[in-house]
Amino acid sequence: MLSRQLGAGALRRGASLPAFRQKNALNLSRGLAVRNASTASSSAFESFLNSRLTLVSVSLFTAGSVAWYTHLYGSLPFLAQVHASHASDEGLHPPEYPWDHKGILNTFDHASIRRGYQVYREVCAACHSLDRIAWRNLVGVSHTVDEVKAMAEEVEYQDGPDDEGEMFMRPGKLADYMPNPYANESAARAGNAGSLPPDLSLIIKARHGGADYVYSIITGYVDPPPAGVEIREGMSYNPFFPGGALGMARVLYDGLVDFEDGTPATASQMAKDVVTFLSWAAEPEHDERKKNGIKAVILFSALTLISLYVKRFKWTPLKNRKLIYDPPVDKKH
Amino acid sequence: MAFSTTLYNTFFQRNSVFFSTVFAGAFVFGIGFDTGVTAFYDRWNRGKQWKDIRHKYSETAAEEAE
Amino acid sequence: MAFNGLKKAVTLTPSVRTMPSGVPAAPLLNLAARAPADPHAHGHGASGPRSDVVPRWSGGISRSSSSLVSKSYTTLPSTTPFTARFMHTSVAVKGAPEVPDFSHYRADDTDSNRALSYFMVGSFGLVTASVAKSTVTEFLKTMSASADVLALAKVEVELATIPEGKNVVIKWRGKPVFIRHRTQAEIDEARGTKWQSLRDPESDEDRVKRPEWLIMLGVCTHLGCVPIGEAGDYGGWFCPCHGSHYDISGRTRKGPAPLNLEIPAYDFNDAEGKVIIG
């Protein structure tokens, strides 16, 4: 407190040095004398805060440190990152689409899954694998057992070793997983100008924005790219893709696929169906999960309410009990 | 005799009866609740699930449905 | 002496004892303690120290853990001037304690209240039991074989491709399975054997679902080798490892094998002419 008083006095009277010395001595002696009850310093502290000199010196200090930092490092912290980023680098934020399976009570539209499988098989499967889905997973979801068996038998799988120790090819069975279009990652990169087509089993879960994002990517190609955007040969411009340049070209055009149920195969219809199919592939347990969720919410809410009732019921006599002391009456009085 | 008294005398008076009722009731409730939720769920998602569209693709199922 | 001191320090002396006269003495229990008079207390609430504990300032007896150390019977002079209480200010003792009237809150019919309470407790138990049952079943389900294992656990074999009198060996769950399309002569031989006297007595009727199809695990019951088909003394299988002979029904007849060849679970699918093993 003493030093604050001193400082305030010093700042206020800093102009005249001799006077400052005198006042300083005075202040010191007075301060020592008046220490018994400390009351005065707050006003001095306030005047220190409000003083013009403080303002000026703090501003100078700030400007000085900014200038010093800039001199040392060339730029200010955080500013550089702001400058380096552009909205296009993050990709456009996909709009929200009203999926059939959106909402806590809704199942997948299985007819859409079936169409989506057709789109995947005829279009996407040329480049993209679906490692985590086996043929048997389609049974009872989008196809009957016989259909899936027939589809699986069209694909040859390597099996073995047989009695002679040789590997041999056999038609697919229900237990086999979806065939991979490429033998390995290098083959996939070689076939796609260096880009690796990602596995689609979990793509809906693996991308920020989920189904909306994948749908936007499939339908969001802009060709030719807008003015000012340069896209390398072999790449395509897609504003929803972070960075804008996507190794995959637009593949879905109206009428590319003939749906067996007569649904018009517009590009957006196919995209919606294949995204529904991929959502199912990422979450095969989805329908059952939501059903269990309904059950759990109902049961546990009921349990909570009843347990509250029972708790109150058990505690009511304890909390509302009044103990009354009835003193023995002295007969003599 | 009031309903509540009847209820008490029938189920609650003897602890053994009370407990048997609770566990038997839990069994029945489990089945009933499952059925109820499934019925609601199927009704809510009518036409979307595989069982709703299966008859279009499976001959045997179509025959069974008819 | 030192031992006694230690003993005293460790062992607490009883607070109640019987005097030689037979009168119980409990010097630490003060049964006659009274709360200090507080003219501002109107007979309720905590008005001072507990009435059953002697206040420290009132003297009396204090003790340490080892033994009685001090007795003081000094009555301290009051610090306030004593005045006789001429007017009676404390609350008069009432004939009956004043209890608020709860009758408004009481239910008219205690029976329905009782039934409701039991009902709620009962439904609580009911829902809990139901939830617990589901939890346990779901948990136990996680211990069963997963779907991809189950998908591999069944093998379908087309029977039309197996000619009469031929063996086929297929792989099922990592083990060989023998499928034998038996001829009528072989069936007659298998059925004609006196199986009651065999080492592992089993009739051929028990071992096959259809007499022409013999389906069994191709693992020797002795030490797990794979027997050779159409070999051995009995026209069935012969295990090259230790020389066990099986007949045309897969029953052990000779050699160290203790049991007949095992029969897996299988079913015929007539519509497609297949046998499903598993």
TrEMBL record, chain A:
Its cofactor is heme c. It is found in: Mitochondrion inner membrane. The keyword Cell cycle does not apply. This is quinol--cytochrome-c reductase. Binds 1 heme c group covalently per subunit. SUPFAM superfamilies: Cytochrome c (SSF46626), Cytochrome c1 subunit of cytochrome bc1 complex (Ubiquinol-cytochrome c reductase), transmembrane anchor (SSF81496). Its EC number is 7.1.1.8. It comes from Mycena metata. InterPro entries: Cyt_c-like_dom, Cyt_c-like_dom_sf, Cyt_c1, Cyt_c1_TM_anchor_C. GO terms for molecular function: heme binding; metal ion binding; quinol-cytochrome-c reductase activity.
Automatic annotation (TrEMBL), chain B:
It is a single-pass membrane protein. Keywords: Electron transport, Membrane, Mitochondrion, Mitochondrion inner membrane, Respiratory chain, Transmembrane, Transmembrane helix, Transport. Component of the ubiquinol-cytochrome c oxidoreductase (cytochrome b-c1 complex, complex III, CIII), a multisubunit enzyme composed of 3 respiratory subunits cytochrome b, cytochrome c1 and Rieske protein, 2 core protein subunits, and additional low-molecular weight protein subunits. SUPFAM superfamilies: Subunit X (non-heme 7 kDa protein) of cytochrome bc1 complex (Ubiquinol-cytochrome c reductase). It is found in: Mitochondrion inner membrane. GO terms for biological process: mitochondrial electron transport, ubiquinol to cytochrome c. Its main location: mitochondrion. The chain crosses the membrane at residues 17-41. It comes from Mycena metata. Belongs to the UQCR10/QCR9 family. One of its GO terms (cellular component) is mitochondrial inner membrane. Component of the ubiquinol-cytochrome c oxidoreductase, a multisubunit transmembrane complex that is part of the mitochondrial electron transport chain which drives oxidative phosphorylation. The complex plays an important role in the uptake of multiple carbon sources present in different host niches. This is Complex III subunit 9.
TrEMBL record, chain C:
Keywords: 2Fe-2S, Disulfide bond, Electron transport, Iron, Iron-sulfur, Membrane, Metal-binding, Mitochondrion, Respiratory chain, Transmembrane, Transmembrane helix, Transport. Its main location: membrane. One of its GO terms (cellular component) is mitochondrial inner membrane. Residues 181-275 form the Rieske domain. The keyword Cytoplasm does not apply. Its EC number is 7.1.1.8. One of its GO terms (molecular function) is quinol-cytochrome-c reductase activity. This is Cytochrome b-c1 complex subunit Rieske, mitochondrial. It comes from Mycena metata.
